[in-house]
Amino acid sequence: MKESISKPIQRVDGPAKISGEARYIGDMHFENRLYAKTLRSTRAKARILSVKKPPLPRNYFIVGKDDVPGVNRMRTVVSDHPIFAEDTVEYIGQPILLVVGPEREKIYDIITKIKVEYEDLPALFTLEDAEKNSEVFTDYHYEKGEPQRAFGEAATIVEDEFRTGYQEHVYLEPQGMTAEFRDDTMFVYGSMQCPFYAEGALTEALGWPAERIRVIQTVTGGAFGGKEEFPSLTACQVAVAALKTGRPVTMIYDRDEDIICSTKRHPSIVRYKAALNRNQDIVALEIDVLLDAGAYNGLSPVVLQRSMFSATGVYNFPHLKVRGRNFMTNNVPSGAYRGFGAPQTIFGTEMMLHNIALKLGIDPLEYKMRHALKRGDPTCTGGKIRDIVKLPEIVKRVTQMSGYHDKRKNGQKYHGIGISLFLHGCGFTGNGEQTIGSKIILKKEGEKVILKVSSTEMGQGAETVLRKIVAYTVDIPFENVIYESVDTGKVPDSGPTVASRTTMIVGGLLQQAGLELKDRWHEADKIEVTRTYRHPDYIDWNNDTFQGDAYPTYSWGANVAEVEIDPVTYEIDVKKISAVYDVGLPIDETALRGQMQGGIVQGIGWATIEVMKTDEGRLIQKNLTDYKVPTSMDVPEVECDFINNPYEFGPFGAKCAGELPFVGSPPAVAAAVSNALGVPIRSIPITPEMLMEMDSDEN
Amino acid sequence: MKIEFTLNNEFKSINVDPAQRLLDLLREDFGLTSVKEGCGEGECGACIVLMDGRAVNSCLIPAGNIIGKSIVTLEGFRKTARYKMIEKCFLDAGSVQCGFCTPGFVMATESLLNENPHPTDEEIKAGLSGNLCRCTGYNMIIDGVKLAAKRGNGLW
User: Fold this and answer.
1) CATH 1.10.150.120 placement within chain B
2) A7 occurs within a structural domain
């Protein structure tokens, strides 16, 4: 065990996944089970006047709002989404009821025979309309310094505006859930990130104590935030159906249904007003963040917070005025997606600086570095950058790797190179960690140690990484660390598997417990050690004023993108991404590279080909034929490197990693496209049509 | 309708609706759950099986079209030395994350290397272009295939 923990090991769930033996929810057998399909709203906003149901064959059931024994709302940050629609529907695809029965063909047939009579109501479809009508769910503000005075004294004032579009997660395994009522307990099995979120939602929907509910995570085929809060809804629906029918009920979405009704990345508009002094430095910024939350607010207030607290990127602007609003529209609800609001504002801020630099005739990288945060600087919310900032080393490495400076000098039209600098706040935003109070258990049994957490493996490698942390800490062979299956009846609540918090926060607790277990190893054959999260005393955060440290620490990075634009079709070919990250210390280099490679490519997709639009609340791209995600033909060469900067409170020095790569690649690609054509980029996805129009204007 | 075909090297004769998707036939009638449904429209490749040695999306094949054909799923393929090589190389290259797309990539890799044992990088990319993966960004899968082609010299 003398080797560095960063040295890769074989991932534990690899063999069963490669051989096809891993059992996802759709692969599981339940005796005597029924299937469920959802009848959905076809209207963006309407009153339900009547629901006419056909006579049902034996063993077929309709399950709706009146069958919910508890509260007909899905519990999350704002518990406003009905489990089944009540008097009105607020978006196309909203669930109204389930048809449940033994044969899927027959279920489809019954669904088509149900007639819903609607009375349409006036609806809102765009952020602009929602802003005009002041349909605001959430309105947050914070300030730093004296923005008003700084704007009064400014030599120049520059304004800019940026837009980003929807993004669909496209986890390869669609949403799926099964509920089974037996032994006076509701067992819910499914593909999910956060079993305790589902458990909490079920306690309210059923009106039962948690002791009568067991949520069991099955092998999860990708999530990216899309299985954070959404599965709470399907869990409640199948549980209500299982209760009514007395039989196990399985609901697995096909891809079209999944795309139509599941949460997406928030479309955004971000507006900037920058005050420059005589040296052309930005001394003050006003930032206005607008997010399309869709028909229900749900998790969106927390997404908005991260969006606002990430809005200054890796920079120190002395005076700030930041406003953020979530708007209600009659679109499908937006929700958690890798980066959680940060990609929208980081894109805007990177491009705002890029555009000003070009206008001033200064190299964008040089201009950005003039504003870069240094250790000891205040954060945007008046907290403090406490740890060593290795941004200069990161930039040096990434520019060398990519030959950035030479390539920029020798640029030719249709070939572009661009750079992005970025950070990501590690763990929950604000006082999230204190509220959750994660708990973990390590249990010694003979030579083995059982690791009990609710942190889920969803593809990111959590099981391998957490077991590795315990094995290295206790100093026992990796095989002797057993990962307890994630079942709310068996494991403590170590918090949801979100916010890039698993390695740093849960892994940190496991390391602390592991050290105690190591000390006490010879005391007994059976020892149980628990740990509950305690926020470091020095971290101070006021959630009412948004003042203090929004995050305990940050991970950092820089990307250089090289692109070629087809002079005829204007298609963007991303040739290469050079990426350097400071994530503290890699726990497993292969697992970490996997996160970086995958995150970079997902970011490129969002920035280029992943076009998703709505027409009066109806998604135009609603299957994988219309909604294009990157394939093996689209991916660039990716060169990736890490700069170690161990974090005092992370396990072995590890910080956050999973979301960081997503934040970085979109602005790098946009900067490279801007460089290739000599035009500013103000919105993503950057489509060939957009470029063609801008280039012909330019000529 | 009665159809006869070979499934994982065993002769089968069954009564089915000829319009039924091969995907459903394999998963539901034969319990072969390595065959995954990711999209149901031939875009994602998670349901790839070999039909007479060539990769096909089983969601697009009606059961009536497999009469007299040989169908191989991962359950059959995983008994071979070629599979063992792909497994080892995928593990070494870090080609697997959530795993839902992986059986499809394994079958696509077999089909690719069977036709072209020494593919170039571009040929590998083209050979895998019918399979979607949302976790890895593909490069680490491409590395796995490259490794299999290199180490598996003679297997294909």
Assistant:
1) 81-151
2) no
Contact call for B90 and A224, based on CB within 8 A:
no
Percent of chain A with pLDDT strictly greater than 90? 97
Half-sphere exposure for A558 (CA within 13 Å, toward CB): 25
The CA distance from A470 to A449, in Å, is: 8
Buried b (16+ CB within 10 A) or exposed e, A51-68: eebeeeeeebbbbbbebb
If you ran DSSP here, which 8-state letter would residue A54 be given? P
Q: What is the ipTM of this complex?
A: 0.99
* Chain A residues 614-633 with CB within 8 Å of chain B: 623-625, 629-633
Q: Shortest CB distance from B138 goes to which of A170, A459, A632? A: A632
Domain presence at residue A160: no
Rounded to an integer, what distance in angstroms lies between the CA atom of residue B131 and that of residue B128? 6
Domain B2-77: CATH class, spelled out: alpha beta
Is the domain spanning B81-151 CATH 1.10.150.120? The answer is yes
Write out pLDDT tens, residues A11-29: 999 999 999 999 999 999 9
Q: What is the pLDDT of residues B24-35, one digit of tens each?
A: 999 999 999 999
Interface size, chain A vs chain B, as Cβ–Cβ contacts under 8 Å: 167
Residue A280 burial class via C-beta count within 10 angstroms: exposed 0-12, middle 13-18, buried 19 and up:
middle
With CA atoms as reference, the chain A residue closest to B127 would be: A632
Q: Of A261, A289, A323, which residue constitutes the final position of a domain?
A: A261
Tokens of A473: 């800490």
**Tens digit of each residue's pLDDT (9 = 90 or more) over A149-198:** 999 999 999 999 999 999 999 999 999 999 999 999 999 999 999 999 99
Check whether residue A273 and residue A246 sit in a common domain: no
Across the range A291-320, mean pLDDT stands at 98
pTM of structure: 0.98
